[in-house]
Amino acid sequence: MLWSRAGGARKPAWVLRRLGRVLGGAGGSMAKSSYEYVRQFEADDTCLHNCWIVVRLDGRSFHRFVEQHNFTKPNDDRALQLMNKCAQTVMLELKDITIAYGQSDEYSFVFNKKTHWFKRRASKFMSHVVSQFAASYVFYWKDYFSDQPLLYPPGFDGRVILYPSNQNLMDYLKWRQADCHINNLYNTVFWALVHQGGLTKAQAQERLRGTLSSDKNEILFSEFNINYNNEPLMYRKGTILVWQKVNEIATKQINSEKEVKQTPSKVTSLHCDIIGQQFWKEHPEILDDS
Ligand SMILES: Nc1nc2c(ncn2[C@@H]2O[C@H](COP(=O)(O)OP(=O)(O)OP(=O)(O)O)[C@@H](O)[C@H]2O)c(=O)[nH]1
Ligand SMILES: [Mg+2]
């Protein structure tokens, strides 16, 4: 059967000939419908070339979602692992993501600056990342929250940001990790004051007003015997997902005559510092756009 893509969707040739006649086309050949002009209203959202494309998503109204689903405070391991699982799924399903970074209810995905995926259309990047992530969140929920039913469908917002230089991209990721540190230190002291110190939330907030990081570390240590530096790395640093080469060679069959040898990669999660230079020296492949 003859098939054609005219009109957007794939249709058999006889349907197109009939459609052409209905729309007034001559001799059964496909004429453009008088509605075709509406395509011109679609905005061109091609991402500027040679820029890193970052998609960041964030849970919608998660302050309410975490309460209703009884997340532990300030960090819920099940929730963080579920976020990481969803982000790994995004990296495996979509093309050209070189690194991802997540903390709390947010995740950032960095697409290689040379990517040509979906002709670099921002709306395609954002919608694919967010929908894949949200669907995975619901799909894998029960694997992480076996005793807690999902009460309503969670939502995520998304945005696309372009970074023209490697320095800008590194600074973006450092900014997100600095944000993770600031929020996690605050939340750790806040909930220690409430849970262990017996303060109300309002009193804890008042106690922390105007304090510096050093003050918060001191409260944790002197009043609750908590050394902040011994708190789990995933809470303090967030999660970095990168590709790691697997130490074996796999053979991929292209067709009945041709096969190619490949060094496969897998997605690995790290919880290390990315603000200093060491991480970037150890992982030059992340910024390598070749
Ligand atoms: N208890 C708990 N709360 C969490 C955890 N992870 C994220 N959150 C909460 O999720 C919220 C994330 O903050 P925001 O994204 O700024 O707030 P939001 O309510 O999602 O609002 P919008 O993103 O603007 O829709 C905060 O209230 C966090 O405390 C967790 O592991 N445990
Ligand atoms: Mg949110």
Question: Overview of this structure, please?
Answer:
- α3 crosses α4, α5 crosses α6 and α5 (166-195) packs parallel to α7.
- The protein has nine helices and ten strands.
- The longest helix has 30 residues, at 166-195.
- Residues 1-8 and 20-28 have low confidence and may be disordered.
- A six-stranded antiparallel sheet has the order 6-3-5-4-7-10, with helices on both faces. Strands 1-2 form a two-stranded antiparallel sheet.
- β1 and β2 form a beta hairpin.
- The chain has helices at 13-22, 62-68, 77-93, 122-144, 166-195, 201-208, 213-224, 233-237, 278-282; strands at residues 3-4, 11-12, 52-59, 97-103, 106-111, 156-163, 239-245, 250-253, 259-262, 265-270.
- Bound molecules: guanosine-5'-triphosphate and magnesium ion.
- Guanosine-5'-triphosphate binds next to β3, α2 and α3.
- GO terms for molecular function: GTP binding; magnesium ion binding; tRNA guanylyltransferase activity.
